[in-house]
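Support case: magnesium ion complex. Customer-provided input:
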Amino acid sequence: MRGLLVGRMQPVHDGHLDVIKRIFEDVNEVIIGVGSAQLSHKTKDPFTAGERVMMLSKALTENGIPASKYYIIPIEDVSCNSIWVAHVKMLTPPFTTVYSGNPLVQRLFEESGHPVKVPPLFNRKIYSGTEVRRRMLKNEDWQSLVPKSVVKVIDEINGVSRLQNLGYKELDE
Ligand code: ATP
Ligand code: MG
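Agent response - structure generated as follows:
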């Protein structure tokens, strides 16, 4: 059995790892769709799809999950919600259950006949992409919210300085 999780992963954080581990309690292979793949260099979406793929594969390896157990697939947005599920299916291996905390994603997959499970949120106040990006912008401790391997990737690509630059630019505009 294969399950699907879709998220923007801007960036990957411990909440994502928690939910992926929970999904592995139900199914033996997980497909991770990296959503809004076309976006990067924005304060809400600072990292490229390739950078996010790298964060995920290194974080899964750090957590002892072998590469044969998952597929990481970048998924660009489409302008019509009504064809989004077909678009996702065009890009991914076959799956049954969809795991999502997003009400629109839940609705679209339910309407297309897929069982949808809503995983419980793990300490959502701090384990959220929004909170990680806020801390990066303010030079606060974001490192404790993401896997160590993700800290390394973000350092390698100078992610914090990228985000801070974007943040200052948007304030000027
Ligand atoms: P942002 O704040 O930028 O929207 P996010 O933390 O919501 O980031 P997404 O990539 O949008 O991250 O989340 C994708 C999916 O990951 C969610 O629909 C949810 O199922 C799961 N998820 C995110 N954070 C947590 C968490 N703290 N605990 C459990 N699951 C989570
Ligand atoms: Mg979100």
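The domain at 2-172 is CATH 3.40.50.620 (Rossmann fold).

Case will auto-close in a few days if no follow-up is received.
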